[in-house]
Design goal:
By secondary structure, the chain is mainly beta. It is 8% helix and 39% strand. Strand 2 and strand 3 form a beta hairpin. The longest helix has 8 residues. It is globular and about 50 Å long.
Length: 280
């Protein structure tokens, strides 16, 4: 995992083309193309050991309790076991909210862990004691929006680490059918091109598509030493069972599925039609 940085966890996990036709058509297309949105640190957070972001779904209301997205392996209680799903667990964890330049805007406080797991995916969702409207009114900072669609291969991405206050830029190289690391297995993981050489402390960073400005994934791991399917050395397994090791390549977990599991009031409802997050 890429990777918490403090306590016992740090000892274990320190690292984390377009074809154009002839004539005037390309120029006309370019003139109508949307410019990428400037990706900043606004809305991201720093945890004690990881990165994260304040996020909202397409159906979230300004008056809803805000949510912070990070990794399941970034929980203050340690790594969930394979098959373990955590819902509605009390938490008062603090998060440093960042400004666009990466400075501290203030501290946000959790009221509970709404959802967390390291099974099929590697995510944690903290519910905050503040609403989106309260955060924007007090700090002038908006939440990042979760995309509700599958990310696209080849698209540009930015991995925004609130812990390190660093933004990595690369592209989505492809997707791993299964990504195995130690006892955990994740489905349909995002594989970065090599330019996103994320390190320890980048765990939980939002992966932002600059074309839309939306979060499409959450950064979580990378193969550090060329090991095969071990902690800090995930391997890819395809539909036929073939295993591939890509040393130095890093990965993220898609987040569009989260939007299918949130209902009125930003509540996680695992019984919703289309919700495929693992259940307890």
């Amino acid at each position: 995992m890429t990777r918490p940085l403090v306590g016992a966890l740090s000892a274990l996990l320190l690292g984390g083309a377009t074809l154009a036709g002839a004539g005037a058509a390309p120029a006309a297309a370019a003139s109508h193309a949307k410019a990428p949105k400037a990706v900043t640190f606004a809305g991201t957070v720093a945890l004690s050991n990881c990165s994260g972001s304040v996020v909202r779904a397409p159906g979230s209301a300004d008056t809803d309790p805000a949510l912070v997205l990070s990794n399941g392996h970034c929980l203050e209680s340690g790594f969930p076991s394979a098959g373990e799903v955590i819902v509605d667990q009390p938490s008062t964890r603090g998060f440093t909210l960042l400004t666009s330049a990466g400075g501290s805007a203030g501290t946000l406080r959790a009221s509970k862990i709404a959802y967390a797991t390291m099974t099929d995916t590697d995510i944690s969702l903290y519910q905050l004691s503040s609403t989106y409207a309260q955060i924007q009114s007090r700090y002038g900072i908006k939440a990042l929006s979760l995309s509700d669609s599958h990310p696209a291969q080849g698209s540009a991405i930015n991995v925004v680490s609130g812990y390190w206050k660093k933004i990595y830029s690369c592209n989505i190289d492809g997707f791993a059918y299964r990504l195995k690391e130690g006892e955990w297995t994740w489905k349909d993981s995002v594989r970065y091109t090599s330019a996103c050489n994320t390190i320890g402390g980048t765990s939980g960073s939002p992966v932002v598509d600059p074309a839309s400005g939306k979060v499409v994934a959450v950064n979580n791991t990378g193969n550090e030493d060329g090991g095969r399917c071990t902690v800090n050395n995930p391997c890819e397994v395809d539909e036929t069972g073939k295993t591939t090791v890509r040393q130095g390549i890093n990965y993220a977990q898609e987040t569009y599925g989260i939007t299918r599991c949130l209902t009125t009031g930003n509540k996680v409802d695992l019984s919703l039609t289309g919700c495929e997050l693992p259940k307890p």
